[in-house]
Amino acid sequence: xxxxxxxxxxxxxxxxxxxxxxxxxxxxxxxxxxxxxxxxxxxxxxxxxxxxxxxxxxxxxxxxxxxxxxxxxxxxxxxxxxxxxxxxxxxxxxxxxxxxxxxxxxxxxxxxxxxxxxxxxxxxxxxxxxxxxxxxxxxxxxxxxxxxxxxxxxxxxxxxxxxxxxxxxxxxxxxxxxxxxxxxxxxxxxxxxxxxxxxxxxxxxxxxxxxxxxxxxxxxxxxxxxxxxxxxxxxxxxxxxxxxxxxxxxxxxxxxxxxxxxxxxxxxxxxxxxxxxxxxxx
Length: 282
Description:
Elements: E1 8-15, E2 18-32, E3 37-43, E4 47-52, E5 55-59, H1 63-77, E6 83-88, H2 93-98, E7 106-111, H3 114-123, H4 125-128, E8 136-140, H5 143-148, E9 154-160, H6 174-183, E10 184-193, H7 201-212, E11 217-224, E12 232-239, H8 260-266, H9 271-281
Parallel strand pairs: 6-7, 6-9, 7-8, 9-10
Antiparallel strand pairs: 1-2, 2-3, 3-4, 4-5, 10-12, 11-12
Helix pairs in contact: 7-9
């Protein structure tokens, strides 16, 4: 008879009928912040993992696919991005990518939860390195309130939000997009994550309709994100003037997923996704 074997798993219930499980070797943090439950664990397959309210936010192994696509598409579509606002993104990944662009002079990151920032600095140094760049200012406050008071100050806004529940729900609605439109200058662009078209098609299509009420140019693009629901992730790019499919500024420094070819290809939507968007626009 062999000895019995025990192991510990982290399981994310991505829908009522879909879950992702990862074996873990250590629990590094397990706290309730003023806004959400925060968990950091060491996994066998993906290295360190941070989850908020049970949803995976980052893992060491695959976070770059998400952060590079969220940040670089609109930053290279802008002819000269100098001032960048990041809404959310307390882990620092989007800031890390933004400062790879030589033209960027200032990044303002606004996240409501200081504990997320603290956990990233403690457990994810490759991510939080972006927060230490001298061009980056970190503010701990409600981003909805912050954006509401700005006018024509930013070239690019990157919405690196959690799922649209509780305090983050407003980040997917027309009033917020109107505030962002006001905060951007005349050539401004916005990028926002919009979930999986398989598990949350209503979030994608609803957000697209909300953004189209504000921005004259709105396009969907997508990329791989293995530990997010279904592994296929979508984004919205909104613009006042410039077509986000076109590259106008130099490519960033070293990347592992994003490239000029990936930029253009990401706007090529599979037929099912084109049909989904067309149906909801009727």
